[in-house]
Design a protein that fits this description.
The complex is a heterodimer of chains A (140) and B (63). With 140 residues, chain A is mainly α. Chain A has one domain. Chain A has helices spanning 2-16, 19-31, 35-39, 43-62, 75-85, 89-92, 94-97, 107-134. In chain A, helix 2 (19-31) runs antiparallel to helix 8 (107-134) and helix 4 (43-62) packs antiparallel against helix 8 (107-134). The two termini of chain A are 33 Å apart. Chain B is mainly α. Chain B has one domain (2-62). Helix content of chain B is 79%, strand content 0%. Chain B has helices at 2-5, 10-29, 33-58. Chain B starts with a helix and ends in a 5-residue tail after the last helix. The chains are: A mainly alpha (140), B mainly alpha (63). Chains A and B meet through helix 4 and helix 8 of A and helix 1 and helix 2 of B.
């Protein structure tokens, strides 16, 4: 009887998660899109999020979109930097992926800037979900 | 990669964006496979409809 109770408690703990797991999943999910869900054994979500955020970020870079740097001067640039930062590893390696450099003088480059920022914001949403699942919230 | 995305038109970029964001939103908000499919389709069409609608509304101001 006691063994059963312990098992049930352990199951509840595993499902419930904790604050530390939530933070670890959130940070991992931010650095590599989908990694937080991978740690939480949400395989399909991890794959889909990596492909969607990565696809959007790579498309933005391939279209020679601009990447906002940390030394932003006005509010819009700071917002752009915050949005871009959300793409995690795609932001940190943006200059290696985008070998030709940005070209925002053309419309395609401008669309690329928006796509990359959208990838970052999308990843922030997945990070919030990873945090919620990790700390034991109701995951869909 | 540049060959794949570099030549995207405005509409092509819109379709790609709408598809990717719809799929992500579906996985974020729905649990069942059929629900996710339905939501993806609905959000994708809504993105396209709203974008084309807003473009159509702005058209007179370009004249």
């Amino acid at each position: 009887m006691r063994t059963i109770r312990v098992d049930e408690t352990m199951k509840r703990e595993a499902v419930r998660g904790n604050q530390v797991m939530g933070i670890v999943a959130a940070v991992a999910g931010w650095v590599v899109p989908g990694l937080g869900h991978l740690l939480l054994r949400r395989w399909s979500k991890a794959g889909v999020y990596f492909l969607c955020v990565g696809g959007l970020a790579c498309a933005g870079l391939a279209m020679r979109g601009g990447i906002f740097g940390g030394g932003a001067e006005d509010l819009f640039d700071r917002l752009g930097f915050f949005a871009d930062l959300g793409a995690g590893v795609f932001y940190f390696f943006a200059h290696q992926i985008q070998t030709a450099g940005p070209d925002i003088a053309h419309a395609t480059g401008d669309y690329g800037t928006r796509l990359f920022a959208a990838a970052g914001m999308l990843n922030f949403l997945t990070v919030l979900e990873a945090y919620d699942i990790g700390r034991g919230g109701e995951a869909r | 990669m540049s060959a794949l995305f570099g030549g995207l038109t405005h509409f092509g970029a819109l379709v790609f964006f709408a598809l990717v964001v719809s799929i992500t939103f579906a996985f974020l908000s729905k649990r069942d496979v059929m629900e996710r499919l339905k939501y993806t389709l609905w959000a994708f069409l809504a993105f396209l409809l709203v974008a084309v609608g807003i473009g159509w509304l702005m058209y007179p101001f370009t004249q």
